[in-house]
Structure prediction request, 268 residues.
Amino acid sequence: MRPGLASAGRVYAMVLRYSYLLRGSWPRVLELAYWPTVQMILWGLINQFMAAQSAWVAQAAGLFIAAILLWDVLFRAQLGVSVVFFEEMYSRNLGHLFTSPLRPSELVLSLLVISLLRTLIGVGVASVLAIVLYQYSVFSMGLALLAFFSNLLVMGWAVGLVVVAFVLRYGLGAENLAWAIIFAVAPVTGVYYPISNLPEWLQPVAWALPSSSVFEGMRAVLIDGVFRVDLFWQAVALNAVYLAAGWGLFLHAFQVARDRDLLLHVGE
Prediction:
């Protein structure tokens, strides 16, 4: 095998390892669905109230349910990368992993795959319960949902890799970034309201986030029945930059940690 090429077998082995962690722990599986479900129920009740009070919201039944479910795609995708990596650090296993032929890029690929699986489980359960409890199906958006899901997933991956890079570089003291960064994004990403509602000076910041294009696109589909292709490609372009930056930052942080002999001590 030529140097630099990823081994599908080793990536599969790492994904299988992380899958066994899920299969062997019911609390882990339940936790994946718990927060999306709690938030779906809360915002489902808010949505029912707003639908009865606001003509703007009433014309788009399920607007807030769709928003919170899509927001959780971003949140879960980021946690699926960062928290799974933290588990390797808690168990002081990074040094053991990299005495094997495993490459850093293969570890990243395995983290992205397990993040996808965890996100599908967590948000999937909440989406089905939304149908049962509120007679609203986020799947009614059709192919647009796939576009929204994919963009939010990739942005979550990029944020997760940045968090992991900081933790590799500065230790577990930086692990709170896994929650702080993503919630810092929420107010300016237009999850529940249009970007035009933000102060003018903050709107360029919002449009620099792929998630803002996604949520504006979601409202265009639910309220106007139009899929905004321009917003889709804007999110794709930004995600390409962010994912490349996150991947590069992780590889740089890994190299620094290896050069400074930190991999054997990151869990201490």
The chain has a mean pLDDT of 82. The first helix runs from residue 8 to 23.
